[in-house]
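#structure-requests
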Amino acid sequence: MTDGDPDAGAVESAVTGPIETGGGPWDFPRHWIADVLASDGGAVHLRPIVPADADRIVAFHSKLSERTRYMRYFGPYPVMSPRDVVHMTTLDHRTRVALVALLGGEIIAVGIYEGLASLGRPESAEVAFVVADDHQGRGLGTVLLEHLAGAAAENDFTRFEAEVLTENRAMLSVFRDAGYQLTRSFDGSTVHVEFLIDPTDALRTVRNARELGSESRSVANLLRPSSVAIIGASTDPSKVGNALLANVISGGFTGPVFPVNAEARAVRGIRAYPSVRDIPDPVDLAIVAVPADTVGDVLQDCLTKRVKTMVVVSAGFAESGDVGALAERTLVHEIRAHGMRLVGPNALGVINTSPDVALNATLAPRVPGRGRIGFFCQSGALGIAILDTAARRQLGLSTFVSAGNRADLSGNDLLQYWDTDPQTDVILLYLESFGNPRKFSRLARRVSRNKPIVAVKSGRSSVAPSQVRRDSTLDDASARAVLEQSGVIQVDTIADLFDCATVLAYQPLPRGPRVGIVGNSTVLGVLAATAGERFGLRVVEQIDLGASAGADEFAQALHRVIADDGVDAVIAVFVPPVAVAADTYARALTEATAGADKTVVSTFLAVEGIPDNLTVRDESGVPTWGSIPSYPAPERAASALGQAWRYARWRATPESEVIRPADVDPDTAREMVRSAIVSTRVGTDETLAFDEADSARLLARYGVHVTDFAEVSDADAAADAAQSLGFPVAVKAVSSRWRGRLDGEGARLDLSGPGTVRAAFDELVALTGDRRLHVQRMAPRGVATVIRVRDDPSFGSLIAFGLAGATFDLLGDHAYRAIPLTEADARDLVAAPRSAPLLAGYRGEPAVDTDALVDLLVRVSTLVDDIPEVRELVLDPVLASGSGAVVLSGRVRVGPVPSRRDAGPRRLS
């Protein structure tokens, strides 16, 4: 499916079809195929080389300059021999792996590693790569190196080696800048380079920085185009293409605008062109508003024109059913294969209010003015309402993107852009689903440290139910965990979203929870105080001026509260008495708080004409920093302030590192898991349950010790096991039906002699009908808790903590966090359940050792992060007491590693 090349179909079917497992030329893992971004933001397709690439590799080699060939091959090497071509394109994908980067069906870079076992170094492989001259400097060498290292690690290599000409500084810089710790030795004209390929924190930091740069530049190509083409620009004012062109023109776009209409010579007085190919100048951004069944033709024109980004507002793709979903996948494949990015399909469009761009490429009839808020959403219809609401509330935006079906460019890409955009201070998200929640969590945690992110998670997908990927959505508890852990302010409604945005955009963050309330109504003050309590706000001063107070008294009271060092934030509440001009009180509020470094919000109840921002305006009349948010109800004012305080508290908390216990044995544990998967031939979508003995042995490798137990099948064996373990003991049923029952009928406890053990065994066999029971040494009494890890197909592993037992399960009183845990995450997890006070010494009971629970959570997190084949893990119960935390039962389920779209080398989701 690439430019009509007869070999392309064979390669494509090899890439996208079933992967053979017989050791043949197609025997490579599917996840080695990836779309990646170059450093300039352009997309590139990456995959293993195959024999059908023979002509491509010859053509690629022939176009290399003499200098590039010399640097790669240490000599002229003008022509590849047929033998070399076969050697290059036929590999075992284990000891020899080669990856090609393609653009428009042509190879533009090649990377290869070859094992060095024949030289007595089975752990090492020699790596080399070469990039076409026209594409050097785009970071493709680093991307190839990352993906080759990932493939090599899967094939049990631990070290790369390379021979590089001393004068080839560019190649040496690729190794150095990739973040690896290099060992170099010189031999005349060459440098021998060696480095370990295991990911380190330093390597991940470098990789993430490169990802940030390439993804933010990719979005900049969308939001800062130098020229725009409107494809489907219609002369009919009722058509979408006409409205798009009108909005681009009226918005004052600073670059050239090219209407594309096959029949009209001009649209809205601007010369039109039959196709994008006929436009004489370069086109950065194409806005497509044609029927879905003709988008493919438009795409070919854009590919020929080398358009950088397409925004497809046309509907009729994945949201419409199977046929549309196939068309959408084809569209994305072709766009990425030719280096482009896509917004949509079914998108509303994009906005950039910066004066040097002034782009309104949307269908919205009303858009807000310039501001410092970035907004991302999916739904087009909702996007129109959002833009209208923002305009009415005088909430200025820096940029806006409605991504529709979000087939390519997503909210994660926008986070990368806004993180680096000096014109954006606050980020708003309306999320119908998480495209890649694991990556979202990582990015949001970083971005939130500098810029607040406010999100509404609707729990709905814009794609038809039949087309929603199994891994596209998370349940509400998981979604809230992702957002909370990442510092994201989660709200329930669009109104709440704008309420928070207003205070974050125009006021300083609260320095603390102490609030002063000034107003002329006790009732309004009480309502504000009550609403703020659930966010941790404390009213330390409340001044009720009474209904007859004048504007001067209002201002004096505000001055007094603002000057009070014991007050961190101020809520002004006002309800007008009869025949009083409310605007004089609004003016008194703005003047009294001008220049204050404390957070101020207000409510003017039942007042017409008071704007949503009591304003400090710029020269264009847009509210700016220092404007005072005004809300229609005191509860909303207090809630917005409370959300800002929660965020300020999170941001002020020092960042906690992911900690790794020293006494762990990942190699042995990993071998136990993988051997079990291989020996039992667990299928791709299947899992294998370890028995409790094997589970305990695996857990012990990470310092998680299950209290000693033995499995027995007769009364005498039970007595012998008890004698060996040491009295007192418990005899317990193994079946899940009898575990954790409220009546405790599945266990007999505190058994102090062989006779009582035998009797207990016989009783439980008679009760349960199962002769397979456990004898376990008694543990100290404590509060029963549970730790669970479950695998989410798109996100990875989530860890849950709560009190154990059917009652807490029924109430759903468990807290969730994403793995890996920092120490702060683990402490938050222990404190998060509503029943957590039972751990802190409720009603005179002794407090438990929460440090022991934190240590246990960190160890479980480390195990699952190290060994992604662990798909489920349950410690139930864990008895927590003042002397520690004791695990009574551990169960593990393993299986092949599911797709991890934020693990390993960089790639587009």
